[in-house]
Design a protein that fits this description.
By secondary structure, the chain is an alpha/beta fold. The protein folds into 2 domains: about 60 residues, no CATH class; about 210 residues, P-loop containing nucleotide triphosphate hydrolases (Rossmann fold, 3-Layer(aba) Sandwich), CATH 3.40.50. The protein has 10 helices and 9 strands. The strands form 3 sheets. Strands 6-7-5-8-9 form a 5-stranded parallel beta sheet, with helices on both faces. Strands 1-2 form a two-stranded antiparallel sheet. The structure holds adenosine-5'-diphosphate and the ligand O=c1ccn([C@H]2C[C@H](O)[C@@H](COP(=O)(O)O)O2)c(=O)[nH]1. Adenosine-5'-diphosphate (ADP) binds next to helix 2, helix 8 and helix 10. This is Thymidine kinase 2, mitochondrial.
Length: about 280
Amino acid sequence: MPLSSVYIGGLRRTLTQIHSAAAACLNRQISGCQRPVRRKGAWMNTQARLLSSRTPQNCTRKLVRNGEEKKLVICIEGNIASGKTTCLDYFSKASDIEVLTEPVSKWRNVQGHNPLGLMYQDPTRWGLTLQTYVQLTMLDRHLCTTPAPVRMMERSIYSAKYIFVENLYRSGKMPDVDFVVLSEWFDWITQNISIPVDLIVYLQTTPETCFARLKERCREEEKMIPMEYLETIHQLYEDWLINKTSFKVPAPVLVIPADHDLPKMLHQYEENRERILAARNA
Ligand SMILES: Nc1ncnc2c1ncn2[C@@H]1O[C@H](COP(=O)(O)OP(=O)(O)O)[C@@H](O)[C@H]1O
Ligand SMILES: O=c1ccn([C@H]2C[C@H](O)[C@@H](COP(=O)(O)O)O2)c(=O)[nH]1
């Protein structure tokens, strides 16, 4: 599927169409909170619908993917090289689980450009470029339809914003204007599109473990990542998912200690399988 399109309830819409259709609907809704109009052929038809939770004080509706909201969504979160992909590989063997890895290959090659590499070379210049593309591709991941009843994703649109954008901004590497523009995009998306997550599995590692695994993996763009970078990302994750002092956590969190060797990790994944699959966001 081209990235210029996303599927909502089986309908292919360009982001521009979605934006203007949603804006039109929201305008209708804001001016008097009237009932959603259901016109055949309109984007808000039997396949795509608005979730409505309307009271005089609370007049919010969101784009949802019809049918997809019944599926279980689990996001695997953790520091760089903490073992997320390895964890997803393990669960991908189950027929009822659809695994969606982070679209890193796209971040490394979008029409011949490498925004990930550019960002590591010059974060101030290219941080916005990378994170805009990360936000788009993660939204695409959240919205794509999958046949399996359980969807297991690597990271989320939430960690892209709360960890990586936040880090660029706090470290002084992202200009205010870039941060504000990205934040407005993020707020619009999360306020207008339903992005349900039932469980966050946090692979909790020390930065030292990640550093060792990063060296072992040896991804070209990441060769210059210093230990301090992993320490900062670690602390942002801890504040978000453990201390809960930074940003809203969109789902319950299951913490899996992930400094262990591979056999022990696989054993832990198996031990937690039932707990993970039993998750259902209230
Ligand atoms: N438990 C583990 N012990 C040792 N090495 C591991 C373990 N889990 C993953 N690795 C290795 O560490 C590197 C990073 O793992 P990966 O799953 O790609 O991390 P992530 O997806 O979180 O970036 C890979 O080379 C992988 O083979
Ligand atoms: O929003 C994001 C998400 C990821 N990255 C970077 C961090 C890593 O270098 C790669 C992929 O991360 P893994 O943990 O190895 O999956 O992408 C980013 O800069 N911004």
